[in-house]
Amino acid sequence: MVPGASADALITELKPIRPPPLDGRAGCETWSVQFSPDGEYFAWSLGHGIVKLLVWPLQDVEQNTPSVLSTTARKRERMLDCGHTVWSLAFGPCTSKAARQAKVTRESCDQSAATLLLATGLKNGDIKVWEVATGHLLFNLSGHQGVVRDMVFTPNGRLTLVSGSRDKTLRIWDLTTAGKNVHVLSGHTSWVYSCCVSPDCSMIASVCRGNPRVYLWSLRSHTFMRNLQGFSMFLVSCDFSPDGALLATAAFATVWEIAIFDPYSGDCLVTLRDCSYCDHEMMNTPIRAVCFSTEGLHLAFVTEDRAIRIWELGQERPVMETDVLHFSNGLCCTFHPQGGVVATGTRDGHVKFWRTPLLVPSLSHLSRMSLRYNISTQQVMALPIPNKIKNFLTYRNLQGAQEARCGVHSTCD
């Protein structure tokens, strides 16, 4: 994929029926987009309190797998009226690829075959949980006192939901008891913007408004662990790599920055910063979201001056970026679980699907992911192996800071 070749990368676009209000009031934004764990549904928060469940692949999206087409042909699109603006979406139960390969417990495997659910986080602080197959509302989770900004199901196949809110808390819900069993994690200094769960379900990471620190929590004991520090900007998004060995964070002040941490040691391994050669208006290009691809080698992120950028770990320039826009655009992004496609949601309620660069992971990377899912950085460093292999296994071969030069300025001195 050639940087800047947005015409080739864009697959299709979804547009809401209702246009944005002329007076600029909020309510029409696509704050969240999600693919189901099996990749057969796509959830679109298209503003005005409505979520649309679409069968994937869409009719005008190329798909070369006949079995997927025959399976999805029996599914139906659905419209869910949530009654309030939807800020976050989460499908569950879900199981990470690493957990499946590690042969998780019998209990988790049994629950992973349970009915597919969709949780919708609302402006009024409630969370509505829907049955995807029927579109029925199963129950309503109350407790948050502000917008439910982000949510994620734990990737072990269990019906455990983690939510972050503007009320400065995280809540851990056990949906097997219809939300009656809930743990509240307090300590953020302001609104929680983003939260994610490590693939082995040992940690929760979260970031909050106006705070340059990452919060790490123990999912097993429901207690605060530590902060990751060293930022000069305010954090807005975070995501674990598929093996849990890396934590990507997105931050901005007048420009944007992505930092990739080792969550076990707290070391910052890689830093990507906005292209200093780009003439951004007033030098204000907020970054909104960052996420890892399913193979763990790509990072996708959206900023308000470009629809999407995709970065390959260890490379000096983006493998894909769209043209500069002249208006606010990206708010969220997510990869399809089988790869090949990334979806982005925009401020005007649109969704765009982009073809991602093709990349076959090396055997060494697949071996590293399998190993790192099971052991921590400290355990790797204690192994009687050469330091070069230790650096590879702990991703320290990627260590360094670099400027994320755009395609136009990638050759500037």
From TrEMBL:
Pfam family, one: SOCS_box
Residue ranges the record marks as coiled coil: none
SUPFAM superfamilies listed in its UniProt record: SOCS box-like (SSF158235), WD40 repeat-like (SSF50978)
Chain ranges of the SOCS box domain: 360-399
Keywords linked to the UniProt accession: Repeat, Ubl conjugation pathway, WD repeat
An example Gene Ontology biological process: protein polyubiquitination
Superkingdom classification of source: Eukaryota
Segments annotated as WD repeats: 141-177, 280-321, 335-354
Pathway annotation from the record: Protein modification; protein ubiquitination
Keyword Repeat annotated: yes
Cited CDD domains: WD40
Listed SMART domains: SOCS, SOCS_box, WD40
Protein name per Swiss-Prot or TrEMBL: WD repeat and SOCS box containing 2
